[in-house]
């Protein structure tokens, strides 16, 4: 049986059918957070921790969101908060996330680019 201490801080598996994984790396001074899976009220804290950690140590943060399969208002709120906190860009958002950003009008606030490299140089 698994205990809370048995998992890494990069995988949220509270809802086993809906985990999110987060990988992180640096590219030319920017912190890149790669999210995969569903972003909802159970999983967003894992993403938020990675984004905030990157913002604390790097001048800009990029979310590579190509593998996000679902995102709700909790995820959108987290993205908007990051925009207020640091230089924040979203790269390669999945169709699901891009739709959420566009339908809510957040595309007028958030910087969205098709690739990590374009997000880094934007």
Automatic annotation (TrEMBL):
Residues 20-122 form the STAS domain. CDD domains: STAS_anti-anti-sigma_factors (cd07043). SUPFAM superfamilies: SpoIIaa-like. It comes from the Bacteria. Pfam families: STAS. This is STAS domain-containing protein.
């Amino acid at each position: 049986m698994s205990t809370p201490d048995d998992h890494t801080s990069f995988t949220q598996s509270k809802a086993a059918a809906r985990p999110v994984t987060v990988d992180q790396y640096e590219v030319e001074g920017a912190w890149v957070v790669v999210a995969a899976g569903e972003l909802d009220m159970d999983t967003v804290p894992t993403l938020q921790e990675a984004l905030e950690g990157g913002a604390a140590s790097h001048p800009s943060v990029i979310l590579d969101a190509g593998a996000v399969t679902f995102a709700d208002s909790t995820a959108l709120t987290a993205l908007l908060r990051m925009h207020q906190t640091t230089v924040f860009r979203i790269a390669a958002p999945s169709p699901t996330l891009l739709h959420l950003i566009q339908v809510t009008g957040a595309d007028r606030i958030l910087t969205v680019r098709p690739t990590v490299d374009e997000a880094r140089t934007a």
